[in-house]
Amino acid sequence: MSPDRPYHHGNLRQAVLDEAATVVRERGASELSLRELAATIGVTHAAPRRYFPGRQDLLDAVAVEGFARLGARLREAVEASPDYQKQIRSVAHAYLEFTISEANLVELMFAHKRGAGGRAVGESAAAAFTPMLQMFRHGQAEGMLGHHDPERIGLVFLATLQGLAGLVNCGVVPAGQLDALLDDAVARFPHGP
């Protein structure tokens, strides 16, 4: 081991995750290499394997962190207003802003493998969408949803937003049309689909 590449790196796990998130954001998950990350961070090529035995373990951990970040944004959006109808717009805007600005990360988050880390990714995804579900349960408690199932409405809402983000991210829908489409989508959800 050469003196310019020491094994110890403070919080190596977080340093590897941070650098991996940067690579995913800028170049996509397919470009992620543990060896390259180690070189960038300045540790031996074996050092990251202490926390991430394989590439998929690292990708799963990046996806888990991505869902945690998304969940925090959705929670902030719900908490920004006690008004149910304003919450719907706020959540939709927060979701689209995240999924469009973090397109490569979102692709990884929704395309994870069901390996050893699959359970952690699934649990983090469920936790991320809890604020959205709580918003629709709140709407139901206020009598805004009638007999509609808040979980089903939440799933349709999520699918609608994910579809809009996907269309923008792949270039089918110009970003300039997003606000009008968002208005149309949000208008369908205060009282159920």
Automatic annotation (TrEMBL):
DNA-binding region in chain numbering: 33-52
Domain HTH tetR-type: 10-70
Listed Pfam families: TetR_N (PF00440)
The organism's place on the tree of life at top rank: Bacteria
Keyword vocabulary terms for this entry: DNA-binding
Protein's name according to its UniProt entry: TetR/AcrR family transcriptional regulator
